[in-house]
Each structure stands twice: as structure tokens, then as C-alpha cells.
UniProtKB/TrEMBL annotation:
GO terms for cellular component: membrane. It comes from Natronococcus amylolyticus DSM 10524. GO terms for molecular function: copper ion binding; cytochrome-c oxidase activity. Residues 55-157 form the Cytochrome oxidase subunit II copper A binding domain. This is Cytochrome c oxidase subunit II. Keywords: Copper, Membrane, Metal-binding, Transmembrane, Transmembrane helix. The keyword Transmembrane applies. The chain holds residues 1 to 157 of 262 of the full protein.
Length: 157
């Protein structure tokens, strides 16, 4: 009986430690994940983007004098809107999500490169000082058309 009790105590102690380790590891990797994909905490129902007021109609919206918000949908194998058009000298906050599989939203020649995960909204703010045209590409393998998944970003004068 006594042995049994000790065993139980040790067992419970061991389990508490294991759970503690798992929590530490999970918590740690979640922190890393967020750092890598920017802020992707917001959740969204991937199958209902059509009914979401932000993503039903992917677009760029002016929200301040030089401030814009871009609602972008990355899906097999296109980006919407395409091209994304913003004025030079603007600060643009991108909200990007996917209705199907994992993609990325990467603006060639810049450090904008975020993973786009179905169910999450990747968010990043970028300043565009000069006019120019950029390619938008997907850096996450997403299927047979992955290599053709391209869009354009026009920063207009
Ligand atoms: Cu989308 Cu690769």
C-alpha cells in the first residue's frame, strides 16, 4: 500500500514536470513563430472569406492622409488584388490571409516576406517612399501552380 502511494506521488510529480516542459517548449516556439510571420494572431474562418467585410472584396483603402490599408487574399495560385496599387510616400498596412493552403506574401526586393496561414491574418506595415513596380511572389510550396503564383505591387507617383 505504502509503495503504491509513493509511486503515485512520484508519478504525479513526474507528470507535472513533463507538462511543465511541454508548456515551456510550446510557449517558446509560439514566440518564435510569431516573430517569423509577423503578427498572425488574429483568427478568421478560411471558408468564409466571402462573408468577411475585409476580404470579400480584396482592396486598398485610404485610412489617413498618407495611410492605407491593403486587404490581400493569397490563394491557389493568385494574389488579389492584382496589381496592388498604393501611392508613393504612403504607409501601408497589409492584412493578408488565405482561404485554402499556406502561401507567402513576399514583395521582391524588400524585406516583406510573411507566411500566409489559412485561419490567420498576417499583418505588417510598410512605408513606400519612391514610386516603382515590385513583384509579389509566394515562397511557400502550395501546389502544382506554386511557381506561377505571382502578383504585382505598383507604387504610383
Ligand atoms: Cu502559393 Cu506557393
Amino acid at each position: 500500500m505504502n509503495v503504491h502511494t509513493y509511486e503515485k506521488v512520484w508519478l504525479i510529480g513526474a507528470m507535472v514536470l513533463i507538462v511543465g516542459f511541454i508548456v515551456t517548449i510550446t510557449y517558446g516556439s509560439v514566440g518564435l513563430g510569431i516573430a517569423m510571420v509577423d503578427d498572425s494572431e488574429e483568427t478568421i474562418e478560411p471558408s468564409e472569406l466571402d462573408e468577411d467585410e475585409r476580404f470579400a472584396d480584396p482592396r486598398v483603402e485610404q485610412v489617413g492622409e498618407n495611410e492605407y490599408e491593403a486587404y490581400v487574399v493569397a490563394q491557389t495560385f493568385i494574389f488579389q488584388p492584382d496589381p496592388i496599387e498604393v501611392p508613393s510616400g504612403s504607409e501601408v498596412t497589409f492584412y493578408v490571409t488565405s482561404p485554402d493552403v499556406i502561401h507567402s506574401f513576399s514583395i521582391v526586393g524588400t524585406n516583406v516576406n510573411t507566411m500566409v496561414i489559412p485561419g490567420e491574418v498576417a499583418t505588417m506595415t510598410v512605408e513606400f517612399d519612391e514610386a516603382g513596380e515590385y513583384g509579389v511572389v509566394c515562397n511557400e510550396y502550395c501546389g502544382s501552380g506554386h511557381h506561377t503564383m505571382e502578383g504585382e505591387l505598383h507604387v504610383v507617383p
